[in-house]
Structures are given as structure tokens and as C-alpha cells.
Model the fold of this input.
Amino acid sequence: MTELAAHSFRLSLSPEHGGCVDGLVWRGQNILFPTDTRADKSTAHPTERAGFPLVPFAGRITGSSFMFDGHNFTLTPNFLPEPHAIHGFGWQMPWKIEAKSGSEITLVHRLTTDQWPASYLARQTFELTEAAMELDMSITNTGERAMPAGLGWHPYFAASGAYVQSHVSAIWRPENAANTAQPESLDQTCDLNTDQLAAKLALDHCFTAAKPETLIRWPGRALQIRMSASDIFSHFVIYTPEDQPYFCAEPISHVPDAVNLDRPAGEVGLRVLQPGETLAGRIRIEPSAL
Done:
């Protein structure tokens, strides 16, 4: 585990455990739901930590297989007993510290495997500024063939007393059959454009982001955060598990299972990187007092 402390922030990371975040504190208040509320930091699974990276894809790949450039790729299911591959490779592999200063740290993760069309280099750079924690994410195709690529971040937030609002324009229903999913209109049960009490939502869904920005408020704690992201994060997932003390609000660059969907690449956010090309974006969490 390693820590950064600068300005009014303290950031805890476990590079060796999936490049995960274990906690983010601002002026003594937890911004993320910290690892040590659920598990020991030395042994915690990524889903028990405060946040983890999604690379080279976000969400699931149905049946752990897809066709790309005329070839079939089969991935190892990594969230048993589900038969799917989920959230990429980065969250379950060690990352290394590439650089560190008093207020900034860069983690890197390299992958070479026949399960993906090309090898890649992924980076996460966390910087603590006076106003925010900024996370720069990137993935570079280091192989000799083209490959699909995506990025995302999977943070956990305290659900108690939390209100969430996000600029979304459509919802993608995961219960739709593979290859037929399409964006659907919002209704009162899923319209995140209006302030919603997180504990009363029943969602595990992807949305099209009209603007990659989410506001989370805890009036009882006199705290709010604004989570904004680069335009590459064209989609947004919210997960509000029943009877759990946390929820997830995830900026992602593409719809889950985008590699298998028979929809326009621009609509699902699917990117293809040629050898040497990079996909990069920034996520910014700015807390403030209410």
C-alpha cells in the first residue's frame, strides 16, 4: 500500500492489488467508501476496495468471447460463477509504480496475452490538487495488430443519506439479449437528471451520458462531490445493490459488451486502436462543503 497526502486530501492505493484505491479523504471526511470498512487491505478483493480501474474494457463480455477482425477471442471468466469476463484484466493484476512525488503518482500495467487482440500498456496517474483529485487514465496499443479498447473507473461511495444526479440521455438494459441491446428512453425509475436518493434506486445499468458529470450529495454530512470526466467517458454505470452500505457510480468509455453489440461504434462507444495509438481521458473528483 502507498499513500499520498497533499493540500486537504489523503489518497491510499494498493498498486499490487489491481491498481486499486483503498481510500480518499478530504478534510477528514471519506469521499470514497474505504476498503477497511469491509475487509483487510492486505487481502481484500478489488470489489471490497474503494475503487478499481477498468481496462481494456468495462462491464461484461457475454460468454467471455467475441469476434474481432475476423478472429474469435475467448477470455477466462473472472467473476465466477458467472460465465462472463468482466471489467477487463487490470483490476485483477498487479500494477507498478512508475513515478511518485508528494502530490502525484503514476501506476502502470502491461499485458501480453492471446486472449486479447494485441498487447497494451495502461497507466493511471493520480494527482492531488488544491481543489480535486484528478485521475488520468490511458491505454496504448503496444502490439502489431489493431485492438478494441476501453477505459473506466469503478469507485464506491457511501449510500447512507446520499443523493445522486447525473446528465444522462438514455438507459441500456442489461437484461436484453446479447447483440440486441439498444438505448431506451428514461422513465421516472431511472431518470438520473433529477436528484435521486441512492438508497431508493434499484439499478445496475449503463446510461448514455449527455454530459460526463455526476453530482453526489450527503446533506447529513454537509458534503458534496462533483465527478466530471473527459468526453471519451461517453457512458455511465450506476449500481445500487439492495441492503448494502455503498453504491457505485462509474464513468466508462463504452457500453458493456460493446464488442458483441450490433450497433454503431459511435453509439456504443467502441474504440479501435491501431498499433502505437493511445486512448486517454481524465476523471476529476471535486469535493465541497454544503
Remarks:
- The chain has one helix and 24 strands.
